[in-house]
Automatic annotation (TrEMBL):
Single GO term (MF): DNA binding
Organism encoding this protein: Cellulomonas uda
Annotated protein name in UniProt: HTH cro/C1-type domain-containing protein
CDD domains per record: HTH_XRE
Transmembrane segments: none
SMART domains found in the cross-reference section: HTH_XRE
Residue ranges constituting the HTH cro/C1-type domain according to the UniProt record: 23-77
Length: 83
């Protein structure tokens, strides 16, 4: 693994960390599985896991789709704590 990849993995972008934390929290509250999110986003479960672990950031379309699945406003996933 290249040095820049190690650094990025250890210190994810602040916005990525916020979105990831909020998505994980809402998934837990609503008991939504990674498999269901993967199905909705048309991604593999591993690709969703990479997003939820901050290795790959969610893109805007994915944030909107996940927000719809979680029944929250997409903006709520961008703030320090999801509603």
């Amino acid at each position: 693994m290249a040095h820049s990849q190690k650094v990025r993995r250890l210190f994810p972008r602040p916005a990525t960390a916020i979105v990831t934390g909020n998505v994980r929290a809402e998934m837990a509250r609503k008991r939504i599985s990674q498999a269901l999110v993967a199905d909705r986003l048309r991604l593999t479960q591993q690709a969703v896991s990479n997003r939820l672990n901050g290795r790959v950031p969610f893109d805007v379309d994915e944030i909107v789709a996940v927000a719809e699945l979680l029944e929250v406003d997409p903006a709520a996933l961008l703030h320090r704590s999801a509603s």
